[in-house]
Structures are given as structure tokens and as C-alpha cells.
Amino acid sequence: MNPDIQRKILEFETFVNDVLKEDLAQLEQKLNVKNADIAEFLELKATITTFKNNGLDKNGFKTQVDIGQNFFIEAQVSDASTILLDIGLGHYLELSIDDAVAVINVRVKLLEQQIKHFRKEIARTNAHIKLILLGIRELQGFDDKM
């Protein structure tokens, strides 16, 4: 085989392994983080809905709070009509139950759009990898009749 072709094949393989596969791993990691964020918001929304449906937002409730290392203390919440919602960058906003659900719905839609974007990027990166591997196969002289 021609040494120039062998060098090009090696460059393409290096690009696939060092750049494209690394990009793919980073995109998948970002996708997993966004999926976990959505799961947290949906869990919070379900909890808020349960509070509202059972009247716990006005009557209060007792709970146990993990203070670390699986040590729990008992807590009494007398009025759960407002909650503190993490809005990012370490800032919390006190919102009514209904406003919190509205903010959660907006955040979930935003996260869904970001997930859609990451999925497109993953598909594009996978297509680039496949295209380069097909090019390498062609340079090596293999017939691509499957």
C-alpha cells in the first residue's frame, strides 16, 4: 500500500479516536446531566402536586430531614404554601406553589430543548465517525458490498 495512503489512514483513525469519540463522550455526559435535571424537576413537581392535592400546603406536615451521613431530624412544616426554588448560580427564590409549578414547567421545556439539541449533535458526531470509517475502508481497498 502507498505510504501516503497509510499515513492518511492513520491520521483519520487518530482523528476519530482522539477527537470525535471524545466529543461524543462529552456530549453523552452533558445529555445525562440534562436528563438527571429533568428527573429532579419532575420529581419536585410531583411532590408539589401531592402537597396541593392533600392540602399539605395549607395544613402543614411533619417530615424527617437528612442532615448528613444518614442522620435524620424530625421537622414540622406549618405552612407549605410557599417554597424556595433554586433558580441557579446558588440563588433561591421564594415562590407560591402555583408559581413554582409554572417555573418548573418552563425549566422542563428548556431542558427538553437542550436535550433535543444534544441528541442532534450526538447523531451528527456518530454520522461523522461512520463517514470517516467508510472513507478509511475505501482507502484500504475493501469493497463495501454488504
Automatic annotation (TrEMBL):
Record-linked InterPro entries: Prefoldin, Prefoldin_subunit_alpha, UXT
Protein name listed in UniProt: Protein UXT
One Pfam entry name: Prefoldin
Family (UniProt): Belongs to the UXT family.
One Gene Ontology cellular component: mediator complex
Coiled-coil annotated residue ranges, if any: 17-44
Taxonomy of the source species: Eukaryota, Metazoa, Ecdysozoa, Arthropoda, Hexapoda
One GO term of the biological process aspect: negative regulation of transcription by RNA polymerase II
CDD domains hit by this protein: Prefoldin_UXT (cd23158)
Keyword line: Coiled coil
Keyword Coiled coil appears in the UniProt entry: yes
Keyword Coiled coil found: yes
UniProt-recorded Gene Ontology molecular function terms: transcription corepressor activity
